[in-house]
Amino acid sequence: MTGTDNQASGNRMTGAEIVLQALRDNGVEHIFGYPGGAVLPIYDEIFQQDDIQHILVRHEQGAGHAAEGYARSTGKVGVMLVTSGPGATNAVTPLQDALMDSIPLVCLSGQVPTTLIGSDAFQECDTVGITRPCTKHNWLVKDVNELAAVIHEAFRIAQSGRPGPVVVDIPKDIQFATGTYTPPEAHHVQKSYQPKIQGDLNKINQAIELMKNARRPVIYSGGGVVNSGPEACKLLRELVELTDFPITSTLMGLGAYPASGKNWLGMLGMHGSYEANMAMHDCDVMVCIGARFDDRITGRLNAFSPNSKKIHIDIDPSSINKNVRVDVGILGDVGNVLEDMVRLWRALPQKPAAERLGDWWGDVARWRARNSFAYKPSDDVIMPQYAIQRLYELTKHRDTYITTEVGQHQMWAAQFYGFEQPNRWMTSGGLGTMGYGLPAALGVQIAHPESLVIDIAGDASIQMCIQEMSAAIQHNAPIKIFILNNQYMGMVRQWQQLLHGNRLSNSYTEAMPDFVKLAEAYGAVGLRCEKPGDLDAAIQEMIDVNKPVIFDCRVANLANCFPMIPSGKAHNEMLLPDEATDEAVANAIDAKGRQLV
Ligand SMILES: Cc1cc2nc3c(=O)[nH]c(=O)nc-3n(C[C@H](O)[C@H](O)[C@H](O)COP(=O)(O)OP(=O)(O)OC[C@H]3O[C@@H](n4cnc5c(N)ncnc54)[C@H](O)[C@@H]3O)c2cc1C
Ligand SMILES: Cc1ncc(C[n+]2csc(CCOP(=O)(O)OP(=O)(O)O)c2C)c(N)n1
């Protein structure tokens, strides 16, 4: 009997049927999961219907990251399904990842029967206890008649306000029990969670006043603009056009304003551009839109943008004044607040004179001329930055989505791949989870089957969730894994070199697998490229193959990612490429005292 038949028979259903019907009624088309004893009734229901597609992954961490990629690239809620015990504990990393990056996820987990809870039953763990700190909210459902309402509420909480992950833990006897299904329309929302989305007009007027009189303004935008949706991104572009303020963005906000836009300064922060960080340091008015003053952005807090008035738009009250005290805090959804801001700016009786920003744009031009992403090109060896530049040139006119793993390659991707639109860039920013990119690419490809989906990876990170190649093959997801293979945990090696006296402790990837053979073992296509002159043709081959590909791009082993603001330093103390210590690179030794160059 399908869920629809069940509705006809007076809304009486088993718990497992309720789960499927609630997913359908919340618009779910895909779920990412892995079965086990405590979720078998739900899997049995999945078997008997075909309107929700289940994507079988190879590890629950993969299910979570795939659901994150799916969510970020579509603006919908990502759904994962795991069994009790190890299934639930394996889900912890993606839950925390989604919490830190504000990604809406609903995780359904099986639990041992209610009568066995607390008895150290087989595959029992305290899922709500373990996931409480890494979710926005979680529930253990003990009454089948509450199951539908809890799932509807889970979807509402995951996507409203500051988006985030939620867990619904469902004991096996509740999945078997029969109860009443209530549709979302009949569901009474919890009064205690009603995020404020409309900004206070007085505050917005105060912000306009500061912006109007600014002589050295900067817009610092973040992931919250992408969270708010395409309309918010349009309004951001409109605000920049109207005010002519320079704009930078965090790693999480890339694409909300186009990289080709004339006011674009590039990403800011630890590996951000010189012009973005100098503008943040020297500005007199900072307009922070949907960003959270992360430590990768602020550097040393007491030296952060010392002379500016700060405006902060955020939907989460706990985000405002958390790390940095601001002068005007506007609580609300970015889209709504920007709509008011644009309207009020347009209605100003006297527009501020454009010339007042002349000197400031002069400063920006000088900083830009510093060319802080410069690197030494080579004809013999592929420089990692060059590899990203070529990847960008050969894919920019296509319908492309990029995911990443974590490390230097992630930062080079952020620096050298120009994002023109939001929701095209999926990366693990807050938790920095190696292993994120491959399953996230799978999730993106499931949502966008016709698009080109590329995971820009490092040789170490890719080995953390490599098993999902098998899921990609099974589900005909032709994802491309573009590994910048430098034979090191490059980001760790860079820190060891610059901050730990060149002692490269355990950051060399010995016993590297042959990635081409590995791809073939999974039934995918393996490609390798070692020479700059061969790169374009090899990338083109990767694009043209309609199958999953692992591309082993052999790059310079010891290239460093600059600029870099060392931990605890201020924005104007950043290390630039030509100040990099070539000597230090030359003197690097590994744990066995071997010279590395
Ligand atoms: C190796 C590594 C290096 C890194 N280096 C850098 C770096 O150089 N530069 C950099 O920028 N980052 C860097 N990061 C990422 C960094 O750690 C943070 O993840 C990132 O800076 C946070 O971005 P964000 O402030 O935009 O916040 P997000 O985590 O995207 O948070 C969004 C903010 O917007 C709010 N919000 C959400 N939805 C809405 C809405 N609808 N309306 C209003 N507000 C909303 C949220 O409450 C939150 O405060 C690095 C990460 C790694 C792993
Ligand atoms: C799960 C996890 N463990 C450890 C780290 C710490 N870490 C950050 S970057 C990095 C090295 C990444 O190496 P690789 O994937 O080869 O990328 P590269 O920096 O060389 O581009 C490590 C170990 C992490 N971010 N995530």
Automatic annotation (TrEMBL):
InterPro entries with a match to the protein in the record: Acetolactate_synth_lsu, AHAS_TPP, DHS-like_NAD/FAD-binding_dom, THDP-binding, Thiamin_PyroP_enz_cen_dom, Thiamin_PyroP_enz_TPP-bd_dom, TPP-bd_CS, TPP_enz
GO molecular function annotation: acetolactate synthase activity; flavin adenine dinucleotide binding; magnesium ion binding; thiamine pyrophosphate binding
Gene3D superfamilies registered for this protein in UniProt: 3.40.50.970, TPP-binding domain
Domain Thiamine pyrophosphate enzyme central: 204-340
GO annotations of cellular component type: acetolactate synthase complex
Reactions catalysed according to its record: 2 pyruvate + H(+) = (2S)-2-acetolactate + CO2
Annotated keywords: Amino-acid biosynthesis, Branched-chain amino acid biosynthesis, FAD, Flavoprotein, Magnesium, Metal-binding, Thiamine pyrophosphate, Transferase
Cofactor dependency: Mg(2+); thiamine diphosphate
Pathway stated in the Swiss-Prot or TrEMBL entry: Amino-acid biosynthesis; L-isoleucine biosynthesis; L-isoleucine from 2-oxobutanoate: step 1/4; Amino-acid biosynthesis; L-valine biosynthesis; L-valine from pyruvate: step 1/4
Organism per entry: Rhizobium hainanense
Cofactor binding summary note: Binds 1 Mg(2+) ion per subunit. Binds 1 thiamine pyrophosphate per subunit.
EC number per UniProt: 2.2.1.6
Family, as annotated: Belongs to the TPP enzyme family.
Domain Thiamine pyrophosphate enzyme TPP-binding: 406-553
BP-aspect Gene Ontology terms: isoleucine biosynthetic process; L-valine biosynthetic process
Pfam (any one): TPP_enzyme_M
Limits of the Thiamine pyrophosphate enzyme N-terminal TPP-binding domain: 13-129
Stated name of the protein: Acetolactate synthase
